[in-house]
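Protocol step 4 of 6: structure prediction from sequence.
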Amino acid sequence: MRRRISLPLKLFLIVFAFVLSCIILISQLSYRYVQKEIRTTDVYYTNQILDKIDQYFTVNFSSFQTILFSVESSVKANIDNTDVIKKQLRVLYELNSNYVSNIYLIKSDLSILGGSTPTRIFDEPLAEREPLFAAADKDRRTTFVSDPYKSKYSGWTVTMVRYLNGAPFPIAIAVDLDLNAIEETLFKINRQEQMNLALITASGKIIAGFSENKGPLNIQDHTFSIGETSAEQILDTAESSLQLHTREGTPVSLLKKPTEKFNWTILSINDESRLKAALSRLETYYIELLAAGFLLSLFVSFVIAKYIRTPLYALKTKMKRVEQGLLTTTISINRNDEFGDLSRAFDRMLQQIVELIRGAELHHELERKLEIQVLQSQINPHFLYNTLGSISNVIRLGQIEKVDVVIESLISILEYGIADASEKVSLRQELQNVSDYIAIQNIRYNRNFQLIEDIEAGLIDFPVFRMLLQPLVENSIFHGYNGGGLEGPITIHAYRERGRVIIEVVDQGEGIPSDKLQHVLISEPSDVEVKRKRIGLNNIHDRIRLHYGEQFGLQIISIPKEITRVQALFPAGLFKGDASL
């Protein structure tokens, strides 16, 4: 025979699994939340750095414009004195040599007057100056910024050139930017902030940056690509943030920002190394949290299982003795809770049963029946007393085999009922509780209230209030079927309809008269004495409306003598596979 697992052990395992799962879930959600926050902060911080770099280039652009205008004013004032112009070009160059490679004038024959030492000596015409002079001559009112190129005297540079209007002969003013200084600035930021920054032109050429990086980029001839995505494709996208993969499959995040003054774009490529470094520091904390959660789960599970096991075993022992015919057995459970109430009620019931049996020997059958009716009327106000009365009846009638059924159903209902009423449970758990409840009522009334379940696929684990269905089923038995006077099927449907989940209990009993139907869901005044204390339909109705809004709650459709439908309406969006919602 297969050995049955005891209820305390089941409870221990369930509580252990539940507490540990909650801790793991909370840990995972916390970890993901922290990861998301770190990622968001990292993106925000990177954008701040990009803004600062753009401001840096904006200031430099203004400085370069100032240099051009200074040269323009100086040349115009000394147009006939070449020596003075050369001296002033040299002075301006030396003042700005930290970020300028050269300051010079380009003549129409492509020869120059230079400010740097090499160009003061070597001023011969060079073909590389032809596009610069042509661009300045084409639009004489604006400043032209070239693409990066290899200059004979300035090296890898970008030139800003402006036509000198008002001169007696064609001439342009040019400033070569020191890209090495710009690149060193980017490298410094990369090292300090653990970033990977670069400055690229509209055609996808690298102006500065990336060259010290040994990461996922393929750099050749001042162009680059990330995996299969070229620089031109990156620039063509409208998004400022991209998620790409390198050729090795490494995921990288790319942020881009166009500069305000230059026709350039600042790129930041993050392979999440900073994020991983930050998260790795949290791993130890989460491992410790999980270990503490494991120990806490064991402790809580043990305490709860022990709290239930002692009185439960005492009750089980007492019921076993009763099953064996020892009606005078007494096992005291001195607890001020449901188990204590159950034990005392059971003792009183046994005492009354013994008295009834003894009285049956002295009095006639009618007096014995009257005493049983008195006993039943005394315990009728509470479901617990009703159930214990049912146990009494089946013992008295010799139907010992039904005792286990009633006790097991009662234990299941008690376990279910002592939990936190605010905790939501799955529809599956509610159906099991109703099944236990109907099993007791069938034995109590000696009727066959057939429970029919029609649950739409996917809704068996829909989260509902604890004790949602039992009051609805109880309403069907006590009002639809006249408190056991009639018998019939009780059908429970669950289905989706127009953005709602509808759970309904249907009986084919007496129905509710139309004049009473509109008052069923109205809460009773607090001063009205209710003879039979139980959860009313208005209680369920108010709880649903309180949690989910006025458009939800209970609806009752009743045709007297034919059918009654009590529908509980919930929002369909409540169910996302998480019964804790």
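Step 5 (inspection) to follow. Residues 363-382, 526-533, 577-581 have pLDDT under 50 and may be disordered.
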